Amino acid sequence: MLLPSYNQNLELSWLNERAGLSASLYLQKTTDGFGQLTFLDASVLTSRYENYFKQYTTGLNINYVFEKLNWWQNDLSANLYHVNSKGIQEGIGVRSQWSCYLQSNNTFFLDESKSNMLLINYAHNFPEVGDNTKYFTHAYLDIGAASALFKKKVNVRLMLEDVFSQYWMRGVMYMENNNFNFRNYYDARRLSLTFTYNFGGKKADISTPSVDFEENNRAN
Question: Is 38 inside any structural domain?
């Protein structure tokens, strides 16, 4: 029977709006964490969800917005963090590792009025651990274009996500008697065409939405 899982969070943040720089130091404690465990017994492979780990995550997240050039805007994020995961069941060991996540969202303006833009976004997650699993490097690249028409009342955006089909989740799940290697592909590659009409006087935001890569980096 699954029990509730609890998260406790502590975060200290700093912001220098004039410099376009922000930072946050955070600590997260997960109690009675649960997930899908795989067991091998007498050549029979079974999987079930159980509460099986306690986890501590500490990290430093830094964000910088570069707007010093008329033709280029860059939103750069870096997250350096340490994960220490302990099993609360027999056969679940301790996993501990430093890791880093980088994301760069770029907007290139193709004219002086900034009505036509080229969008290039890239994210990269270095090897990390979580619960009883080690995850290998994974990344993705998005490329697109956007245009503001009719006095910027109409916004059009064409976006190709995960251009090179890089969104593979590869890793090793460690158990007492067996280790399970996995290689899963989450089909994030897609082509989207978006139209937005602004009824008011305020300019619509046509920047590329940021994908939270970290929320998807847990294997099933």
Answer: no
What is the DSSP secondary-structure string of the chain?
A: -----EEEEEEEEEEETTTTEEEEEEEEEEEEEEEEEEEEETTEEEEEEEEEEEEEEEEEEEEEEEEEETTEEEEEEEEEEEEEEEESSTT---EEEEEEEEEEEEEEE-STT--EEEEEEEEEE--EEETTEEE--EEEEEEEEEEEETTTTEEEEEEEESTT---EEEEEEE-SS-EEEEEEE----EEEEEEEE--SSSPP--SPPPP-GGGG----
Measured CA distances, 110 to 11, 114, 144, 181 (Å): 39, 7, 13, 46
CB 212 within 8 A of CB 188: no
- Nearest of 205, 184, 158, 142 to residue 36 by alpha carbon: 184
In this predicted model, what pLDDT tens digit does every residue of 134-189 receive, in sequence order?
Answer: 899 989 999 999 999 888 889 999 999 999 988 888 888 887 677 888 888 888 88
Secondary structure (3-state) at 216: helix
Asked if residue 102 is part of any domain, the answer here is yes
pLDDT band at residue 80 under the 50/70/90 scheme: very high
Q: Which domain holds residue 143?
A: 55-207
Residue 20 belongs to some domain of the structure:
no
Q: Residue 214: inside a domain, yes or no?
A: no
For the stretch 10-38, pLDDT in tens is 999 999 999 999 999 999 999 998 887 77
Provide the domain count of the chain. Answer: 1
